[in-house]
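Standup notes
- HV: blocked on the assembly model, inputs below
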Amino acid sequence: MKSEKITEAATSRRRRYDDACGTAHALDLIGDRWALLVMRELLLGPRRFAELRADLPGISANVLTQRLGELEAIGVVVRQRLPPPAAVQVYALTDWGAECEPILAVLGRWATRSPWHDPTLPLSAVSLLISFRTMFDPARAGDLRATIGFRIGAGSYRVAIAAGTLAAERGNVVGTDAVITAPAPAIAGVVYAGQPLAGLDIAGDAALVARFVTLFPLPAKVGVTVPAAAP
Amino acid sequence: MKSEKITEAATSRRRRYDDACGTAHALDLIGDRWALLVMRELLLGPRRFAELRADLPGISANVLTQRLGELEAIGVVVRQRLPPPAAVQVYALTDWGAECEPILAVLGRWATRSPWHDPTLPLSAVSLLISFRTMFDPARAGDLRATIGFRIGAGSYRVAIAAGTLAAERGNVVGTDAVITAPAPAIAGVVYAGQPLAGLDIAGDAALVARFVTLFPLPAKVGVTVPAAAP
DNA sequence: CGGCATCCGGGAAGATACTG
DNA sequence: CAGTATCTTCCCGGATGCCG
């Protein structure tokens, strides 16, 4: 019964591009609305249904259920039941699913050039951390070596910079050089919209944080050359 | 009047993600059905409406009209009227629009690992040429230096390989070391599905073509570990 | 023929309420 | 908390027709 559903969802989708192009096939697999954003929210580790719903503003429960089922059917997401006592169900990316990160990175970099991109909209913690991976500029970091902890809502994360590389992951903040406690949009406002550092709760090396927030330059906006109608 | 339509289409779309994440904004801009594939068809130069429709199997005229209008409104496509005598209208990518190529490349590479990817489906000439850019393996090319011409339907293209780089563009085939005349799916079948070279019409250096078709290895398929239902 | 508007049917997405 | 059921909205796709 379940296997029928798997093959049905994976192979005989109603609306598909009949195209050998890999791009078209990718869109057949993960081109549905919300699909890529669900995968984004799983990039830093397994999540529960309610967490996903809370961090995907505007998704409805039935659509989330449907997307998770389809992503599971194509082998991008697996459903895991944690062992007792915490016998809750979580969703995780498969290895192949996790390989979607370059897709998110390239899409994000392309879109930050858009004249309509608004970095002050709501933002999930995972989005922020992944954006650090995407937008990190090794040249600006130079030989900086530091770790910074983040407390965002109920979650904690750590970012390590060393030898021109950046690692961002879920984890506790003990032993980091500085700890930032703030909502994700507030941090994004400082890093990506030039808002003052004063809005953040910073513990530890404040000078380090002041430098950290300069390591993620946005590409130049495309000129507002939207073709106007000829008079 | 036109400007109203522009701001309407670009800023007040009905169904949008309220998310500062760059990926989400990219999907707001070019996440609609067919949008990326329309951009793909323009990557090798301006095209006319009927050409686009012919190379996007299954798109309907009104959807193509709508997509082109939206892509124009956001500044990704421009409409050009060629000067007389060939006073026809063509659609072209803007500079920003052309920067979508890494998106197509990354999506395509990710999807070729799919167990359901079928390289024998229909394929447009542009898709094939762009796939050469995406899948080219410099290590396999070594110090090969060659040019190959393609006659696909009514169009002609040329691929130049030198110093471990590949260039693929529209252009005539004169002066190339070999010329392949065949439909795009037939060429794709040889390069990506291991079909015999015999099916292609080859003029010039046949040994070069035999090597050329080995320069585009596909990544390993993901194991068929689609989670089965527990018995 | 090229491009666009309009109408219609089907189906996916969105919102809300409800259940184990 | 983790979904399911139901209803509405609206996008996609196909057909037709208008107009240059």
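- HV (later): unblocked. Strands of chain B lie at 77-81, 89-93, 146-152, 155-162, 165-170, 178-181, 201-204. Chain B has eleven helices and seven strands.
- Next: hand off to the docking folks.
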